C-alpha cells in the first residue's frame, strides 16, 4: 500500500527534474519523479492502475538521484518501492511481457541457474541481433553477457594476513558471484591483506535486491530471510558487500523483514575507509574514471570513500565523469525490462566516459559494469573495466591489473 503521508511531503518544486534520467531523455512530466508522485496520488484517491500509468511507473529506474536532489526530504525510494508492489499485484501485463519477467525473476536471483548459462555467454552475444528481433529484452540479455573464463571456488574462511583487526562476513551475490567471480576473490584478498578474517557462508543466496526493486515483495522477503539467516548463523557483526544494489537492500533488511537481522551492512569502500589502511600500496601508473553506481551514491550516500581509496594508490590519476549523477541505465533489471531507454542512457554514459580520456573505468556494481562495457563496445571505445576491489587488490599485491 502506498503511504499518503510520504506523497504529501512533495511540494512539486521541480528540483528533481534535471536529475531524473527519464525526464532528461524525454522531457515528459509523467516521466519525472514529480509526475510519478502525482500518479501515485491519483491511485491513492481511487484511480485504478491503468496500462498508461503502469508504463510511466515502470519507466522509473529507481536510481534515487531525485532523493539526493530533493530539498524537502521526499522519500521517493520508499514511494516507488511501495508503488511497484501495487503495480505488480493490480496491473495485468501482456503475455509477452509476463513471459520475459518470468524468465528474468526465475533466473537472475538464483546463482545455480546462472551458473548453467556461463558456458553459453560467447554464443549469446553473437546471437544478440537475432534475439532482439524475437524480443528486445532477450536481445538485451544476450548483448550484456560478460565473458567468464574461470570461476575460482571461494573458501569458507579467508584468514587475515598479519595481525587480525576484524572478522567480517562477505556477500558473494548472484550476478556478482557467477559473472564476476574475480571481483569476489579480489574483495576477499583485500580484506585479508587489511587484517580481516573473512567468513563466506555457503548457504547464502540472493539478497533479494532485484525483487525488492521490482515490486516482487514475497520473493524478496523469502530470499532476504535466507541470506540473513546464513550470516546470523555465521556469527558475524558486519557483512561487507561489493555490489551497490545488494548493499542498499541489505541495509534495509530491518524494514523488509520486520526485525533487525543482528549484523551491520557496509559497502566494501565504506568499511575499508572506516577501518583505515595498514597494507602497503604499490604504484599503479594508470588514469581511472570512477563511475558512481546509483545505489551506492544516492541510496547509500557513499561517494567520497571509493575515491579516497583509489586516490591513495601511488601514481594512479583519478578523473571525474561528467553528469556523474545520471544513471547509466542498468538499474537492476531495468536494462532487461526497458532495453530501449536503458540503451539510450548507456550510450549517453559511454560518451561521457569517453570525454575523460581514462584508460580504466572503475565501477562498484556488476550491473553498471555490464551496462557501460556493452555501451563502450557499441561506441567502438577501447577501455578496460574493473571493480574498485580489483584495483586495490592489484596495488596491494604489486601485480598488473
TrEMBL record:
Domain (4Fe-4S ferredoxin-type) ranges: 1-30, 51-82
Note accompanying the cofactor annotation: Binds 2 [4Fe-4S] clusters.
Alphabetical UniProt keywords: 4Fe-4S, Electron transport, Iron, Iron-sulfur, Metal-binding, Repeat, Transport
Pfam families in alphabetical order: CCG, Fer4_8
Enzyme Commission number(s) from the entry: 1.1.99.14
An annotated Gene Ontology molecular function: glycolate dehydrogenase activity
Record function comment: Component of a complex that catalyzes the oxidation of glycolate to glyoxylate.
Protein name: Glycolate oxidase iron-sulfur subunit
Organism phylogeny: Bacteria, Bacillati, Actinomycetota, Actinomycetes, Streptosporangiales
Top-level EC class: oxidoreductase
Cofactor(s) recorded in Swiss-Prot or TrEMBL: [4Fe-4S] cluster
InterPro entries documented for this protein: 4Fe4S_Fe-S-bd, 4Fe4S_Fe_S_CS, Cys_rich_dom, Glc_ox_4Fe-4S, Helical_ferredxn
Reaction(s) this enzyme catalyzes, per UniProt: (R)-lactate + A = pyruvate + AH2; glycolate + A = glyoxylate + AH2
Stored Gene3D superfamilies: Alpha-helical ferredoxin
Amino acid at each position: 500500500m502506498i503511504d499518503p503521508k510520504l506523497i504529501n511531503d512533495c511540494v512539486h518544486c521541480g528540483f528533481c527534474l534535471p536529475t531524473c534520467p527519464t525526464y532528461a531523455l524525454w522531457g515528459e512530466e509523467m516521466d519525472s519523479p514529480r509526475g510519478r508522485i502525482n500518479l501515485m496520488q491519483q491511485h491513492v484517491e481511487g484511480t485504478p492502475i491503468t496500462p498508461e500509468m503502469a508504463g510511466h511507473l515502470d519507466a522509473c529506474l529507481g536510481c534515487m538521484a531525485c532523493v539526493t536532489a530533493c530539498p524537502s526530504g521526499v522519500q521517493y525510494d520508499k514511494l516507488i518501492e511501495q508503488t511497484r508492489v501495487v503495480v505488480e499485484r493490480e496491473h495485468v501485463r501482456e503475455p509477452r511481457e509476463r513471459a520475459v519477467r518470468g524468465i528474468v525473476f526465475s533466473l537472475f536471483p538464483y546463482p545455480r541457474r546462472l551458473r548453467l548459462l556461463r558456458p553459453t555467454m560467447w554464443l549469446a552475444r553473437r546471437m544478440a541481433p537475432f534475439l532482439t528481433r524475437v524480443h528486445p529484452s532477450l536481445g538485451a540479455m544476450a548483448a550484456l553477457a560478460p565473458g567468464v573464463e574461470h570461476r575460482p571456488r571461494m573458501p569458507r574462511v579467508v584468514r587475515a594476513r598479519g595481525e587480525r583487526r576484524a572478522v567480517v562476513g562477505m556477500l558473494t551475490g548472484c550476478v556478482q558471484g557467477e559473472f564476476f567471480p574475480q571481483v569476489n576473490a579480489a574483495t576477499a584478498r583485500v580484506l585479508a591483506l587489511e587484517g580481516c578474517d573473512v567468513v563466506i557462508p555457503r548457504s547464502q543466496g540472493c539478497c533479494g535486491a532485484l525483487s525488492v526493486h521490482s515490486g516482487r515483495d514475497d520473493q524478496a522477503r523469502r530470499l532476504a530471510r535466507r541470506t540473513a539467516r546464513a550470516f546470523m548463523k555465521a556469527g558475524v557483526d558486519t557483512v561487507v558487500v561489493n555490489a551497490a544494489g545488494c548493499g542498499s537492500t541489505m541495509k534495509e533488511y530491518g524494514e523488509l523483514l520486520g526485525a533487525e537481522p543482528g549484523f551491520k551492512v557496509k559497502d566494501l569502500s565504506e568499511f575499508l575507509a572506516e577501518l583505515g589502511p595498514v597494507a602497503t600500496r604499490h604504484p599503479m601508473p594508470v588514469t581511472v574514471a570512477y563511475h558512481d553506481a546509483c545505489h551506492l551514491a544516492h541510496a547509500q550516500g557513499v561517494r567520497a570513500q571509493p575515491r579516497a581509496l583509489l586516490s591513495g594508490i601511488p601514481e594512479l590519476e583519478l578523473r571525474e565523469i561528467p553528469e556523474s549523477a545520471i544513471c547509466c541505465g542498468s538499474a537492476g533489471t531495468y536494462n532487461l525490462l526497458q532495453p530501449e531507454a536503458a540503451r539510450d542512457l548507456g550510450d549517453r554514459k559511454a560518451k561521457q566516459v569517453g570525454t575523460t580520456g581514462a584508460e580504466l573505468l572503475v565501477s562498484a556494481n556488476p550491473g553498471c559494469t555490464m551496462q557501460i562495457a556493452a555501451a563502450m563496445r557499441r561506441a567502438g571505445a577501447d577501455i578496460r573495466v574493473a571493480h574498485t576491489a580489483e584495483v586495490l587488490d592489484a596495488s596491494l599485491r604489486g601485480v598488473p591489473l
